[in-house]
Amino acid sequence: MKISTLSPVTSQKKANTKIPGKKFWEYLRIGKTIEPVLFINLNEDGYTSLADGEKKEMKEFYLHTTLKKVDGKDTYPEIVCTAGCDAYNQKPCLGCFMQQNFKFQKGVINPWKRKQTTKWTVLHLAWYYKVPRKDDKGEQVVYNDQPSFIHVLQTEASAEKYEGTCEKYFGKVLKMDLGSAHSKGLLNIRKNLYWTCQGCMMKIVTNNLSCPECDKEIMKVNILAAEGKTLDEKLDSVRMLVGTPHGCVCGYRGTMVEGNDCCYTDDYKQKKRGKKCPFDAPVRGDVFGTVTLLTKEGEQASSSLIMKNFYSIYNQAGDRVYDLPVEVLDEYPNMEVDKILDIIKARAVREALDGGINLDLDKEIDSFMLPVEQQAEVLGIPMPQALSSGPRLPQH
Known about the structure:
Shape: globular
Low-confidence stretches: 1-17, 391-396
Mean pLDDT: 88
Number of helices: 9
Radius of gyration: 25 Å
Strand content: 25-35%
Number of strands: 19
């Protein structure tokens, strides 16, 4: 199975200093190649969703896009929605205004689209070269009193150019934006991992719920008998049941203790004969504790985010543990995989911050929320009179 060859953008283009924009070299773009990634959360309190105002482990926001002709070619400029999530106190947003005031005509499709997007932080588990960035005089650029570098993904071409002459390292922190369809794809991946034990890498079943105060069993659970027509619907029903507060005869009311077991086959019907989990109790998976091999299948708007495989970072002796490169293991002998990844992550985060990369997802999206005048400039349209006479967004 071929792993990534050239998916992250590694060249650094000149940015427009007038209007803040996305720096594409700070992002991982999932394409046709397979990307080994470990999702990381750098903010324990979470990020404020611009969709519902809740705190979440990713940044949730809306993008407005439209069709714009540039030199006879179709382009699709985009802006971050600035309306906010309070339906009764919306702030000025040119994208919302244009979408809501589009004059529908027969045979004409509204070019204004508003799509929900999620922003994540990931550790891209690949080799990179740390190449000194030089100015026109051939001297290394200094940023914040630190020498500046360009980080180039290892490929056959880059290896031929930089191997042996530039520092090489494993693991780079990048950001990743997912549109609504790919965000749903990631949600399905997380659901799959939720029912997979990171010890035996087989399915988890829920058998009962018990009171945490008196240990009394309040109900038995059978996944295959749960509400729902499909297996996925039944699993969702059980997951909701586990998270719903219940009452006990002892007077306690709240979330109950889940009694579960693992080493079950993919149909959740029976345990695999002779299989034994190395853990004392099932350990649920998630993208934040599992190395996932992600790729994109399909074309453009109809594409899907697919998990080709996944590996545990905690189970050192069981099946499907993530195999770090030999060079990395040699650098940290007799150390467990999750501990090595913690060191790699800490180094990668420090490298990113020293390079001026903004890893605060709240602040980054705030910087992209432009005043309506600049929104018009980005979208290439004249300012509507209704917004010109209205209140202004604060200047960033």
